[in-house]
Amino acid sequence: xxxxxxxxxxxxxxxxxxxxxxxxxxxxxxxxxxxxxxxxxxxxxxxxxxxxxxxxxxxxxxxxxxxxxxxxxxxxxxxxxxxxxxxxxxxxxxxxxxxxxxxxxxxxxxxxxxxxxxxxxxxxxxxxxxxxxxxxxxxxxxxxxxxxxxxxxxxxxxxxxxxxxxxxxxxxxxxxxxxxxxxxxxxxxxxxxxxxxxxxxxxxxxxxxxxxxxxxxxxxxxxxxxxxxxxxxxxxxxxxxxxxxxxxxxxxxxxxxxxxxxxxxxxxxxxxxxxxxxxxxxxxxxxxxxxxxxxxxxxxxxxxxxxxxxxxxxxxxxxxxxxxxxxxxxxxxxxxxxxxxxxxxxxxxxxxxxxxxxxxxxxxxxxxxxxxxxxxxxxxxxxxxxxxxxxxxxxxxxxxxxxxxxxxxxxxxxxxxxxxxxxxxxxxxxxxxxxxxxxxxxxxxx
Length: 446
Hints:
Elements: E1 7-11, H1 16-27, E2 31-35, H2 41-48, E3 52-54, E4 72-76, H3 85-92, E5 96-99, H4 100-108, E6 112-117, H5 122-135, E7 140-143, E8 155-157, E9 162-167, E10 181-184, H6 198-210, E11 217-221, E12 229-232, E13 239-247, E14 250-257, E15 260-267, H7 272-287, H8 292-301, E16 310-313, E17 318-322, H9 327-340, E18 346-350, H10 355-360, H11 362-369, E19 374-377, H12 393-399, E20 405-407, H13 413-419, E21 424-428, H14 437-445
Parallel strand pairs: 1-2, 1-4, 2-3, 4-5, 6-9, 6-10, 7-9, 10-11, 11-12, 12-13, 17-21, 18-19, 18-21, 19-20
Antiparallel strand pairs: 7-8, 13-14, 14-15, 16-17
């Protein structure tokens, strides 16, 4: 079906998932255009590569070359409202319109597909695996949900024999995928605006694993209890880590499998959660018959993923930028900071993401945030949502059992942190809080 269209139009083209698809079609010599509400580094990069992008929601802004429904395929992200003027124009005029996940399903359908799913860890795991495949010259294309520090992109292509994708559980998007190899990194309760319960979310992951093709493989974190080839820290798992330690900015551990031990693996991301992501990528690489020594070497040259425990500054203060927006993710960040810097005073700066998530995990957020030495909240980042009565950062702040707490506007952060006595700052959230990191860094340095 995709071959029938010369022009691909993206509604929400700057999104991390949409933009990788846009890069793919540029490489396929298709004409690419789209709308986004924000001009970002990603949209600038797409424009440099030939995409026509505008930032005003107006059907009159759609380039004339994309107004022929027989030539144009329209793709949208769930973040796009059904009231979007351009979406309504395409709908009313009979264009073929697909969700991003549906398009990803079509691209991967007739290829050897590796799908990495999980409520946390899927971006880091898929980026590590992409690095392993590229360093070992495997023919593959990967669509990842973050920016690789090694390659400064979320789209990596070295052929088309394997399609590596992130399997997104939001809106049940991953049910469009039928992988040869699937991996589930975690199934913690999340997206309760979509799923009514943790049990319903778990059922959705089971349906995803049921989509694995005949003779395919499932890799799963031991805590998910999903079966397949398990990995974790327990010696009961088929692949497991022992002798974990961290020093400076890296992790060190041993990998155990089938009675054999690979000692002193170095991985350039701290944190036990990241070591598990590396282990999952190692296990998949080994099952693809890549030499284990080559995989270990790739782990040692992996530089990380932007906004996944990324160091924005190391001296005179430490600034860590992280995408953490769920209590489990914040706990992983906290544990890593306490492991690396047990004697340094820390401050957590957290921008809650979504009113529904803040509502559903209010007490869990308060509990883990209370453990930091100092806590600064900003207002909730709404993304696609409308405000919910009595759900706010003020309410969350009231529940935090730590007297060293405050709410600040984003514009006030730089001044406050410059005056702070803390030695470690961790800036967390999935919204636009990342836009403040460079400003904070420069203010501390000057």
